[in-house]
Design brief:
single chain; about 240 residues; Glycerol-3-phosphate (1)-acyltransferase; seven-stranded mixed sheet; globular
């Protein structure tokens, strides 16, 4: 958390106003998706600028040309969201676990996204979230959801991907975009402000024709393996701050 404190200190004159505006953008009926995302993205750029973190990004050309796709990355920590804001130009919404609401700042950021909250202990509520996601994706909204359900405690080794994560895409035959995140646990989880590098790689999407004959559990395994393979390839090149 020492890096977060440093980032706040470097923009201390801006933070109160930013927080005020973020709270205002929590009114998703009043402000458009584009307005809210543009403002959050501006803050994301400032966050990266003062974070002493270098972000390596590849594969943006793999993103579907049309909006209405599901982004399914591995999950390493809070910096994941910053990397998406920094690299993903088009607006997206996000699905988070309900506990996030209890974090004063992070909760307001997700309010500004219009994020959907998922209660992992309530199957019926989870299905309502999936149905809502399906409707939004059909209407051209992109979504980020973490198939692991929670962040990995094992650095660049993935946890199990849950098949239910992919139901929103399969219901409306939408593209699924796997994303490999590397070393994103370093900026906020390590008690250090040393310069570091994180990576985000957008992998080739799975279109309906690619997965139409698969169960969601099989899609989960396929996407998991695609992401882990990419991570392993980058680690084999020595392109990891965590290895140094």
């Amino acid at each position: 958390m020492i890096r977060i404190a440093m980032m706040v200190a470097r923009r201390i004159l801006h933070v109160p106003f930013w927080y005020y505006r973020i709270c205002k953008y929590g009114d998703t009926e009043k402000y458009s998706e584009e307005e809210r995302y543009s403002y959050l993205r501006m803050i994301g750029f400032h966050a990266v600028k003062v974070s002493r973190v270098n972000i390596i990004c590849s594969g943006l050309e793999n993103l579907p040309k049309e909006n209405g796709y599901l982004i399914t990355p591995n999950h390493q920590g809070m910096f994941d969201c910053v990397m998406f804001l920094y690299t993903h130009e088009r607006p997206f919404n996000i699905v988070n676990k309900k506990e996030v609401r209890h974090f004063p700042v992070l909760g307001r950021v997700f309010d500004a996204f219009g994020a959907l909250e998922m209660d992992r202990e309530d199957v019926r509520q989870c299905m309502k979230v999936i149905i809502k996601m399906s409707e939004d994706i059909r209407n051209g909204l992109n979504y980020v959801i973490f198939p692991e359900g929670t962040r990995s405690k094992n650095g660049n080794s993935l946890g199990t991907f849950k098949g239910g994560t992919f139901k929103a895409a399969t219901k409306v035959k939408a593209p699924i975009v796997p994303v490999a995140i590397i070393d994103s646990f370093i900026p906020f989880d390590r008690n250090s402000i040393r310069k570091c590098t994180t990576q985000i790689h957008y992998l080739p999407p799975l279109y309906y024709e690619d997965y139409k004959d698969m169960k969601t559990t099989e899609i989960a395994v396929l996407v998991h393996d695609m992401i882990q393979k990419k991570i392993n390839e980058e680690l084999a090149k020595g392109n990891s701050t965590a290895q140094r």
